[in-house]
Amino acid sequence: MRQNWHSHVRGMVALAPLLPASAPTIRAMTATATNWVCYLLECADGTLYCGISNDLEKRLAAHNAGEGAKYTRGRGPVRLVYCVSCADKSSALKRERAIKALPRIEKLALAAANENKSEKCN
What is the pLDDT of residues 21-68, one digit of tens each? Predict the structure, then answer.
């Protein structure tokens, strides 16, 4: 017997009381995961790598374990030389694109300016 959409909705409504009241919504889960950063690494061979992440510590560990970006796999260990917090993934991607467009000398200037600051990027 074929059911219409009304019976499906009634079935879903019947399941609603089974969910715990403290169950996070998708919107709440995504709202808390907005700690995006754009970072610049110096590889062991002196080259620079720019990327973004929403978990910087985990990403740095992945780079140093050889499980990060393909570019950094054979160039470890890497050292964080610059990072900036971003409001969301979109702004982090835009910042990454802007940094990648800079010449090497300007990327090094960013890193040097960041060394003078005592704040951490989180």
Answer: 444 443 443 444 568 999 999 999 999 999 999 999 999 999 999 998
Per-residue pLDDT tens over the stretch 107-122: 999 999 987 664 456 5
Q: Name 82's Cβ contacts closer than 8 Å, sequence gap at least 6.
A: 39, 40, 107, 110, 111, 114
Q: What is the CATH number of domain 34-115?
A: 3.40.1440.10
Domains of the chain, by residue range, sit at: 34-115
Half-sphere exposure (Cβ direction) of 11: Cα atoms closer than 13 Å: 6
Neighbour order of strands in the sheet with 36-42: 48-53, 36-42, 79-86
